[in-house]
Design brief:
With 367 residues, the chain is of the alpha/beta class. The chain is built from 14 helices and 15 strands. It has a domain of 247 residues: Aldolase class I (TIM Barrel). The protein is globular. The relative contact order is 0.15.
Length: 367
């Protein structure tokens, strides 16, 4: 199969590979910039920018670990702008996207920050982003791409957007339950055959046709060239891949994080409870052992990172602060870090360049 370019809004994506937006600090300037340079769509995560480059772009921190104080600092505009500027030095005027979680605090403000910082496309999941057009209303050239898990969700979203802002998504990502990080299904639903990507993709493709010609992008467990071909045959215009890009030289994650994924096994990659309210997939490490034993780091809501957590109340229920633990992973702290990965993370066995990976994905030359 010959892969084709496609458009998201006014932006042409040369190769149908979208790099997943992974926070905190997994997909920032170097990874996203190089993916766009190679013809895919690089996606900068807007999550936790306040820990970028040793908090140099954060106005207020607290504690010996210098945790960003409040959402205004955890989601730092000055850091996000620097990340985009650095990525632009790598990829030039090629399209760049930002991933902004719907569950995060100050969602509207961070969408506007991303637009100001230079995002051509905004991608939003972790909740059904019914108010996404309102957040981006001052930036009509910025394309909007929601993430859904069902055709029903896309239908509800399109009806709302059409009614409130007379616009529709510029593309839609349909994500199955094998992805890393937060899922769009409840825990038990993640294992049902009818919710797997190959079964939810076609209904979303058909629903998208009812609203014009928006591209549909398949995500969640897509691993190699053959998977991409399979998704295309089911009607997708492109794929989104996160975990494969952790295994690249340019990935912004710490070397510790990369090694944790390389050392993982199928049995150690699990779904965990999360303060966000959705199950999340990652590698079971010493952090989870310490949670079970009651020796995990103390929970004190400092950053106010996600609204469903209710200022740390949900963090206390699940046993960890997601902002602090993801920040530890970015800092390379193996004992207290939280290491997200997709279900196929155990298949990573090497660190290669972004160019080498995209060439493999396009040509099918898997090692």
């Amino acid at each position: 199969m010959k892969f084709k370019s496609f458009k998201i809004g006014k932006y042409t994506i040369e190769k149908p590979i979208i790099q997943g937006g992974m926070g905190v600090g997994i997909s920032w300037d170097q990874l996203a910039g190089n993916v766009s340079l190679e013809g895919g769509l690089g996606v900068i995560s807007a999550v936790g920018t306040g820990v970028y480059k040793n908090r140099a772009y954060t106005e207020k921190t607290i504690g010996k670990e210098e945790r960003p104080l409040e959402a205004i600092n955890f989601y730092s505009y000055s850091a996000l702008k620097k990340i985009f500027d650095n990525a632009r030095e790598v990829c030039g005027n090629r399209p760049l996207a930002a991933n902004v979680l719907y569950a995060q605090s100050e969602y509207d403000r961070v969408v506007q920050d991303a637009c100001k910082a230079g995002a051509d496309i905004i991608i939003t999941g972790a909740g059904l982003p019914l108010t996404m057009p309102e957040a981006a209303k001052d930036y009509p050239d910025v394309a909007l791409v929601p993430i859904v898990s069902t055709a029903k969700a896309l239908r509800i979203l399109c009806r709302r957007w059409k009614k409130t802002h007379n616009r529709l998504p510029d593309a839609v990502i349909v994500e199955g339950p094998l992805s890393g990080g937060h899922q769009g299904f409840k825990y038990d639903e993640c294992f049902l055959p009818e919710n797997q990507l190959e079964n939810i993709l076609s209904p979303v493709v058909e629903e998208a046709k009812n609203w014009g010609s928006m591209p549909v992008i398949a995500a969640g467990g897509v691993w190699d060239h053959n998977d991409i071909v399979k998704m295309m045959e089911l009607g997708a215009n492109g794929v989104q891949m996160g975990t494969r890009f952790i295994g690249t030289v340019e990935c912004d994650a710490s070397d510790v994080m990369k090694q944790v994924i390389l050392n993982s096994t199928e049995d150690t990659i699990r779904l965990f409870k999360s303060p966000v309210g959705y199950p999340a997939r990652g590698v079971k490490t010493n952090l989870h052992k310490s949670i079970e034993e009651g020796t995990a780091p103390k929970i004190a809501c400092i950053s106010n990172c996600v609204t469903p957590c209710n200022r740390g109340e949900e963090a206390k229920v699940v046993g960890y602060c997601i902002a602090d633990r993801l920040s530890d992973a970015y800092d390379g702290l193996i004992d207290t870090g939280l290491f997200f990965t997709g279900a196929n993370g155990y298949r990573l066995d090497e660190i290669i360049t972004v160019k080498e990976l995209i060439d493999k994905l396009m040509d099918g030359e898997e090692s």
